[in-house]
């Protein structure tokens, strides 16, 4: 995509939006000729932040939470081991963990 800015949304925004925005697998096909500039910038929550679908979005929908609650640091530890694999099994792993953990309330700004 010539003269473009591409923004990849992360898994956390997919969860918070209850699937309205989808995260994508990062991939690039570099051209053999010419130049290319890439700039990666990450904005992550605190390591103890609990990530889950926004209640205001879920309440307006007929669907329930499609994604589990998870602690960001736990997710990152899991992600580092499987980051180049499909994202769906990552979410499933945390659904199983959610059923056995009490993540409590989350402070909001």
TrEMBL record:
InterPro entries: IPNS-like_FE2OG_OXY, IPNS-like_sf, Iron_ascorbate_oxido_reductase. Residues 2-45 form the Isopenicillin N synthase-like Fe(2+) 2OG dioxygenase domain. It comes from the Eukaryota. SUPFAM superfamilies: Clavaminate synthase-like. It holds the Pfam family 2OG-FeII_Oxy. This is 1-aminocyclopropane-1-carboxylate oxidase. It comes from Sesamum radiatum.
